[in-house]
Backbone:
């Protein structure tokens, strides 16, 4: 085999290798980086459309789910949920959390726009029965006040999800109690000059 053919083969191999690496980088960026954010955007838009609003920084209190009515995909049939979508690009967001007294399972989870779960608390590790989470964007200069816990989100938008388990969905008194406990938690924007 001549030296020219050998160099051409090596050149072709090098070109195809570089092309393959470049394609892998692009596919990685699209699949790993962009698809989760696009799926979150579509899900949030669908839920807000069902709620007939475009509001961020608000909690929506959902009843027990029945086939075809659950806003949280594949949710537990014995679970009430509160869901909200946050935007901390301009102001911090206060999440007032009240842990139910019932002893049933309860949790709060915060998700970044790319679906990363970056914060979780439940009834067993909450510490206090009532507390304030202050959700801020990355690099915020917000200083926690007494009784506040600052939580930094990697993305300026994301999802808040609270779950409340109902032990007996046929017990109307329990359903009313859980609904009352659920409505005690809320979100509100924080007015501050330290952002």
Residues:
């Amino acid at each position: 085999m001549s030296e020219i053919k050998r160099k051409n083969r090596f050149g072709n191999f090098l070109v195809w290798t570089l092309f393959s690496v470049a394609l892998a980088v692009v596919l990685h960026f699209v699949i790993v980086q962009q698809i989760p954010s696009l799926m979150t955007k579509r899900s949030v838009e669908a839920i807000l459309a069902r709620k007939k609003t475009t509001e961020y920084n608000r909690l929506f209190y959902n009843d027990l789910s029945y086939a075809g009515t659950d806003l949280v995909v594949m949710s537990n049939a014995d679970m009430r949920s509160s869901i909200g979508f946050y935007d901390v690009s301009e102001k911090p967001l206060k999440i007032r959390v009240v842990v139910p007294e019932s002893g049933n399972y309860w949790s709060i989870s915060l998700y970044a726009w790319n679906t990363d779960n970056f914060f979780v608390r439940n009834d067993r590790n909450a510490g206090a029965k009532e507390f304030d989470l202050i959700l801020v964007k990355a690099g915020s200069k917000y200083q926690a006040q007494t009784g506040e816990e600052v939580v930094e989100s990697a993305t300026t938008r994301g999802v808040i999800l609270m779950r409340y388990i109902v032990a007996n969905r046929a017990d109307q008194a329990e359903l009313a109690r859980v609904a009352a406990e659920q409505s005690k938690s809320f979100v509100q924007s924080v007015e501050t000059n330290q952002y």
In short: Residues 43 and 182 are 23 Å apart (CA to CA). The domain at 59-189 is CATH 2.60.40 (Immunoglobulin-like). The first strand starts at residue 59 and ends at 62. Residues 3-50 form the longest helix (48 residues).
